[in-house]
Amino acid sequence: MSIHKSELKKITTHQFQEMKNRGEKISMLTAYDYSMAKILDSAGIDVLLVGDSASNVMAGHETTLPITLDQMIYHASSVVRAVERALVIVDIPFGSYQGNSTEALRSAIRIMKESGAHGVKMEGGSEIRASVERVLTAGVPVMGHLGLTPQSIFKFGTYTVRAKEEQEAERLMEDAKVLEECGCFGIVLEKIPASLAQKVAREVSIPIIGIGAGVGVDGQVLVMQDVLGITKEFQPRFLRRYADLHTTITEAIVGYIKDVKSESFPNEREQY
Ligand code: KIV
Q1: Which residue in 36, 86, 144, 269 could disulfide with 187, CB within 3.0 to 4.6 Å?
Q2: Same domain, 254 and 131
């Protein structure tokens, strides 16, 4: 059941915080194009993330590293044009903010100005503090991202669970506090033990959104293609599929091909 237009109330970063304060869980999914964003928004999703996972699921790259700022802006502006209610957050892509706060500011401003999005997301903790702070000085809301950070995949070498050891867990907690102190409006925690994620969500006041981080956080995010069963190969333990669109689409296309070949499409009513 979709939400009626009169029930629409735009989600702002203020409401995002209010949801945590009153204990309402936050729903977040990725989106990269107009048609799909329109469906997700009218279904009532709270937050749409224009993730750099577009590099994988839209462009077919193995990692998130190749996607460019221009490409992210293209995806983001398509999503923004579809949305009436959801908060739209955009990943600043690899190479557009790390180690250079001026470039971080320039990238964030381009995203906000050219796409009309409501905020940006950046991967990392204390090592990107200067960039996070600089972006925040321009009034751009920033969401952090800790735990498994796919833009650093070549540093870690694997996509396994992060922060299982005490030292890494302590560092992650410190980084979460640094991001909160800087003024981030939320943090994504990816693929870390549920007990640690719950501890972070309790110890920091800003909303914590988990992906593979258990139920004790303030909300959940997944990649839309995974949730809808469009991707088949990716089957991590944390993923719950809510549809099997791979099969549905395949069956529809097989039917279309068959009808074209047999000349049963178009019929009398489907022509002029
Ligand atoms: O790019 C992305 O889709 C993300 C989510 C997995 C959190 O960062």
Answers
A1: 144
A2: no
37 residue type, one letter: A
DSSP state of 6: G
| Cβ atoms < 10 Å from Cβ of 62 | 9
Range from 96-100, 164-168, 200-204 carrying the lowest mean pLDDT = 96-100
- The atom number, within ligand 1, closest to the CA of 188 reads 7
Closest residue CA from atom 1 of ligand 1 = 51
Q: Which tokens hold the place of 271?
A: 């022509």
Q: What is the pLDDT of residue 57?
A: 97
Q: Ligand 1: which residue has its CA nearest to atom 8? A: 51
CA–centroid distance, 227 to ligand 1, in Å, is 13
> Could you tell me the CATH number of the domain that includes residue 124?
3.20.20.60
For residue 120, what is the enclosing H or E element? strand 119-123
How many angstroms separate the CA atoms of 217 and 230, rounded?
Answer: 27
Measured distance CA(55)–CA(153) in Å, rounded: 14
| Ligand 1 surroundings by CB, under 6 angstroms | 30, 49, 51-53, 91, 188, 190, 211, 221, 223
Inform me whether the pLDDT recorded for 16 exceeds 50: yes
CA 185 from chain centre, in angstroms, equals 15
| Backbone φ and ψ of 42, nearest 5° | -75, -15
Phi, psi torsion values for 7, nearest 5 degrees: -85, -5
Q: How many domains does the chain have?
A: 2
In angstroms, the Cα distances linking 160 to 76, 79, 146, 150, 236 are 29, 30, 14, 11, 10
Tell me the per-residue pLDDT of 192-223, one tens digit each, with 9 for 90 and over: 999 999 999 999 999 999 999 999 999 999 99
Active site residues: 190
Decide: 224 and 40 in contact? Cβ < 8 Å: yes
Whether pLDDT at 7 is above 80? no
What's the domain range around 154?
A: 5-241
